[in-house]
UniProtKB/TrEMBL annotation:
Keyword annotations of the record: Dioxygenase, Iron, Metal-binding, Oxidoreductase
Protein name as it appears in the record: Intradiol ring-cleavage dioxygenase
Originating species: Pseudosulfitobacter pseudonitzschiae
Domain of life: Bacteria
Any one biological process term the GO annotation gives: catechol-containing compound metabolic process
Lineage: Bacteria, Pseudomonadati, Pseudomonadota, Alphaproteobacteria, Rhodobacterales
Ranges for domain Intradiol ring-cleavage dioxygenases: 130-158
Alphabetized GO MF terms: catechol 1,2-dioxygenase activity; ferric iron binding
């Protein structure tokens, strides 16, 4: 006879109910989740009131989700979970460009622009030239790589957050490399900004004494045939939030130079992307 539920063996009682035919990976993941969830409640001696508060919080988080707003991803991001899953799934050899959090503001299908084009369409901010090369691990330039970029404007908002204020595709574009693997475009020096904090995740951060800010960064999605996609940012090194990004996205190797040469009116940030060849048979 299956065992009755007891406090001592609560997780075992739940996991014993799984059918023999359940997908083996689902069994493994769910069994571990149940075990850790029960262990957590036991460790903190969770009160009924606390669990009711948690359910209300999760309910509000779900209710805020829409095509434009993904509060659960914000929750995952601010708990460092997005970065953990990303790290587990994107272990790369030394020298390869590291991944970081994707964020909610990517838009598929940005205009393909010519090298050197300006992606800042609202005329705000400090002009900055972004350039570098897309390389293979052995230093070979990659032709036909697509460097898809997006960032906030000088007021700290993405175009999709201000559809009635900013021009469509403001601070976005795709650049396809030629034989020398180089890319080059003009934009604005990114500024730090708060993640959307007018919902339950913002309330959680406030209760925890945490600020909602991300250090200034430029987003990149770099794709090339036969290579692992890189989803990353470059960070502005002197940003006050560099050491405490609210979504834990900063990695030392992603802090890029942002320099203003004497006499030059624009900033310049040079960063090379180093891509890893796809493992035989892999599909990404
Ligand atoms: C972003 O950098 O666009 C971002 C990342 C995580 C949460 C919110 C925003
Ligand atoms: Fe961002």
């Amino acid at each position: 006879m299956a065992e009755f539920f007891t406090e001592d063996r609560s997780a075992e009682a739940v996991n014993a109910r799984m059918g023999e035919d359940a997908n083996p990976r689902l069994r493994q993941v769910m069994a571990s989740l149940v075990q850790h969830l029960h262990a957590f409640a036991k460790e903190v001696e969770l009160t009924q009131k606390e669990w009711d508060t948690a359910i209300a919080f999760l309910t509000a988080t779900g209710q805020l989700c829409s095509a434009e707003r993904q509060e659960f991803i914000l929750l995952s991001d601010t708990l460092g979970f997005s970065m953990l899953v990303d790290a587990i799934n994107n272990r790369r050899p030394p020298g390869a460009t590291e991944n970081t959090v994707f964020g909610p503001f990517y838009v598929e299908g940005a205009p393909i622009r010519a090298m050197g084009d300006n992606i800042s369409l609202d005329g705000k901010g400090e002009s900055c030239i972004f350039e570098g090369r897309v390389l293979d691990l052995d230093g070979t330039p990659l032709e036909g790589a697509c460097v898809d970029v997006w960032c906030d404007n000088a007021d700290g908002f993405y175009d999709v957050q201000q559809p009635d204020i900013q021009p469509k595709w403001n601070n976005r574009g795709r650049f396809v490399t030629g034989p020398d693997g180089s890319y080059r475009y003009r934009g604005v020096k990114p500024v730090s900004y708060p993640i959307p904090d007018d919902g339950p995740v913002g309330q959680m951060l406030a209760h925890l004494g945490r600020h909602p800010y991300r250090p200034a960064h430029m987003h990149f999605k770099v794709t090339a045939p036969g290579h692992e996609t890189i989803i990353t940012h470059t960070f502005v090194g002197d940003d006050p939030y560099l050491a405490d990004d609210t979504v834990f996205g900063v990695k030392e190797t992603l802090v890029a130079p942002f320099e203003r040469a004497e006499g030059e009116t624009a900033w310049r940030s040079v960063f090379n992307f180093v891509m890893v060849p796809l493992a035989e048979g892999a599909a990404r």
